[in-house]
Design goal:
The structure is a single chain. With 86 residues, this protein is of the alpha+beta class. The chain has a single domain, classed as Beta-lactamase Inhibitory Protein, Chain:B, domain 1. It contains 2 helices and 4 strands, in the order ααββββ. The protein is globular and about 35 Å long.
């Protein structure tokens, strides 16, 4: 019985955490901000389409650099933001 209760509580906590993360993500996009871990779609929703994209393929994945007209740069690795410069 204790194991089942732990599983239920853990699942509930994970659900709450994911909802909070989605709320935080929506707030970031609404405020035209980006964060580590965002996807291509998240960044495009926050900042619009990049002016230029450079893409490189490596043995461990794909790296993309998105350049924006206001000198901002976003670096993606395998579809997720790993760094950015505003």
């Amino acid at each position: 019985m204790n194991k089942l209760l732990c599983v239920v509580i853990t699942a509930s906590m994970l659900t709450v955490c994911s909802v909070m993360a989605e709320d935080d993500l929506g707030l970031l996009i609404f405020n035209h901000r980006i964060a580590i871990g965002m996807t291509f779609a998240n960044v495009q929703a926050a900042w619009g389409k990049p002016e230029r994209v450079d893409r490189s393929t490596y043995s461990d994945g794909i790296k993309e650099l998105w350049f924006f007209s206001n000198r901002c740069l976003v670096v993606f690795e395998n579809g997720r933001v790993v760094s950015f410069h505003e």
